[in-house]
Amino acid sequence: MITIHIPQITGYIVRKPKPLRAYAARSFSFRLELLLIYNGSEAGKTVTFGQPIYVNNFWSQVSLDGLKVIEGDMKEFYLDTYDLNVLRDGFYEHVPRGSTYGFTHYVLLMSLAVSRPREEFIIEMKLKVQVSRVDGSLLSSNVPNGTILDARKELHEDYDKYTAPTFYWDYDNPLVQEVISSIRTRIENKYARPIDHIPIWSLVRELMNWLSYNTYYSDRFDYPYFRLKVSKLLNRTIEVDGRRKYYGVCRHIVDIFVALARGLGIPANRYEGMVFNDFSGEVTFLGFHAWAEVYLPHVGWVPLEVTITHPFDRDVVDIGDLEYMYYVPLVHEYNNCKPPFLSPFLVLVTSASVINATLKEGGNERGVKEGDLSMVIHVPTLGSLSIKDFLLMALLSVLIIDDLYLHRRLSRERSSG
To answer: What mean pLDDT do residues 260-279 have?
Structure first.
């Protein structure tokens, strides 16, 4: 008999914090086509491979509605649940299906018959998605006063789990410590009290402010497509308008935020997933994105967008807001380690589209337009044209123009050098 260890799941239970408002719910089916390229050298064998496909939360509920093999020989497949934050003896921690544990990852396990190296498999998944926007503006009008000391009391032994350094969030590195020390000194001088006596909501706002002045969203020619340790990210800068800034895309900026937050004593985690838009009634898949969450005492775990690399972003994005796109999590991370092995398959998205989309308004449903994958945008984009959305439209235009100018300048520097 094989004994499977089931972890205690009482520490993080999925629930909506009372001050947050989930609204404008969307229901749709999502078709995703994946290309799997075999990375191994052995042939004539069956390889089992697991692909995380969703994590459910209070604003997003997903289920697998179908699977079709377009190319390749799949012997079998099934859906199982794991905590991808816990790795024991080369295996991720199994958790019960249907539990309310917040780190339950639904993983598609596939047995693929491999006949040669670099063999390609194409599979098509159909997912049912129910997702809402999340409004955190009530937190701004009634700021929670819970501090780091309160977080320690409420989270008990889990506090250390959500504030510890990890492989990528290596805030124990001297370079990262230097940045954290500078931020801590500035905050404590501003509030005239120790950092663990300042409301966490205020500390998070200070970090968002720091990001808006010290990071730059850029996919420049030497931009790292892969994930990096924060100590590496804080050792890379680019000059923007006469100021040196740390740069990268959403995955890098989120990792910087989580590492700095944890280094200050703020419980923080990371999400990675898909984002959708409904601009002008057309539901569209925008691409893949990363965002964060923090623990606010007396409130709970609150998601937030931290790819805010301009002061305009800071002014329109509230803590708890997931308003400008529909966020559907694939991975929910509180721990990470050095990748223990090379994945047997390289996974690429070759096609994606939204089908059968409906909008729930006042308990009623109406159809909305469907959209195919058009382009990937990793900055906050447009929903309905509220005042905030109008500001975001202007911001997006500024960022595009600024990025074009930067690329031209870098091209001139390379040609002259």
So the answer is: 95
Phi then psi for residue 157, to 5 deg, are: -70, -20
Check if the beta carbon of residue 114 is closer than 8 Å to that of residue 100. no
Residue tagged 């004539």 (tokens): 44
Confidence of residue 104 (pLDDT cuts 50, 70, 90): very high
Beta bridge partners of 171: none
Rounded distance between C-alpha atoms, residue 47 and residue 417, angstroms:
49
CA–CA gap between residue 152 and residue 112 (Å, rounded): 46
328 strand-pairing partners? 274
Tokens read off for 136: 């955190």
The per-residue b/e assignment along 349-360, b for 16 or more CB within 10 angstroms, e otherwise, is eeebbbeebbbe
Whole-number mean pLDDT of the chain?
84
> pLDDT tens-digit profile of 194-236?
999 999 999 999 999 999 999 998 876 556 667 899 999 999 9
Q: How far is C-alpha 280 from the chain's CA centre?
A: 25
Contact predicate 54/329, CB 8 Å: yes
